From TrEMBL:
GO molecular function annotation: tRNA threonylcarbamoyladenosine dehydratase; ubiquitin-like modifier activating enzyme activity
Short name of any one Pfam family annotated for the protein: ThiF
PANTHER family: TRNA THREONYLCARBAMOYLADENOSINE DEHYDRATASE
Name recorded for this polypeptide: Thiamine biosynthesis protein ThiF
Lineage: Bacteria, Pseudomonadati, Thermodesulfobacteriota, Desulfuromonadia, Desulfuromonadales
Biological process, per Gene Ontology: cyclic threonylcarbamoyladenosine biosynthetic process
Gene3D superfamilies reported in the protein's UniProt record: NAD(P)-binding Rossmann-like Domain
Organism in which the protein naturally occurs: Geothermobacter hydrogeniphilus
InterPro entries: ThiF/MoeB/HesA, ThiF_NAD_FAD-bd, Ubiquitin-activating_enz
Length: 272
């Protein structure tokens, strides 16, 4: 056992290492806080921030989450909630890809938006927020439009991709890109009181089936708008799917589409 592990074991209480001691270990041993977190988990201990995960996620699984890389495409309504939930869950590396800035019409629903952030680049705000929420998580902000020309480079080393874009053409292109790169994709879309979620493995082509009747235009969200609560719900479903994929647990929404209607409080499933 090296000196850092000895330090951590001496300060752990019931197998938990406090944030204070995690910080102190980084300072004393001149290690980044992310490296200290990995050492804690490797030692069979648990950063105290994750103690409420323990009944469903083992320490070994928490280490697996920490060593995972998830790319989130879009940092707006869905993306902001997804990014924060992934960081709080303990996913160690997150890539946030979006080319947009915050505008006033984002303030009603986008978690990362605020009056002081108007005009700022969304992914840069996301990086600041995640550093504040969980400093052990590494968020890489990329201000770009993801597409066929840059997809292979931007998604290199990724374990899972999350769709938080706001238009049908971008979703269909993203599905094709993930299929070519052999990456799982967790899709979500919202409009007004409604939304849906699906998990797609390479070759399944679920989005082509969902949008088989699409004839152009941005999509129904352009007509129905979005309130504050719909993106939070869809994002939570999506992060749950990501967690299952990374841990290889449960039954993902493969070849299925979960559809929710909050106006009538109904949840349905469509199979393909």
């Amino acid at each position: 056992m090296d000196a850092l592990q000895t330090f951590l074991h001496e300060r752990a209480t019931d197998g938990l290492v406090s944030w204070h001691d995690q910080q102190q270990a980084g300072e004393q041993f001149n290690r980044p806080v992310a490296e200290v977190e990995e050492t804690i988990l490797q030692a069979g201990l648990l950063p105290a921030r994750y103690q409420r995960n323990q009944q469903m996620i083992s320490t070994e699984q928490q280490l697996l989450l920490f060593r995972s890389t998830v790319a989130v495409i879009g940092a707006g309504g869905l993306g902001g909630y997804i990014l924060e939930q992934l960081a709080r869950l303990g996913v160690g590396r997150i890539i946030s890809i979006d080319d947009d800035i915050f505008e006033e019409n984002n303030l009603n629903r986008q978690l990362l938006s605020s009056p002081k952030n108007l005009g700022r680049v969304k992914v840069e705000v996301a990086a600041e927020r995640i550093a504040e929420v969980n400093p052990a998580v590494t968020l890489t902000p990329i201000r770009a439009l993801l597409g066929r020309d840059n997809g292979a480079e931007l998604l290199s080393g990724v374990d899972c991709v999350v769709d938080a874009v706001d238009n049908v053409p971008a979703r269909l292109e993203l599905e094709e890109l993930c299929e070519s790169l052999q990456l799982p994709l967790v899709h979500g879309a919202i409009a007004g009181w409604y939304g849906h979620v699906a998990t797609i493995l390479p070759g399944e082509g679920t989005l082509k089936k969902i949008y088989r009747h699409w004839q152009g235009g941005k999509g129904v969200e352009a007509q129905l708008g979005n309130p504050s609560f719909t993106p939070a719900l869809a994002a939570s479903f999506q992060v749950g799917e990501v967690c299952k994929l990374l841990l290889e647990q449960g039954r993902p929404l493969r070849n299925r589409q979960l559809v929710f209607n909050l106006l009538d409080m109904e949840i349905d499933e469509i199979t393909f």
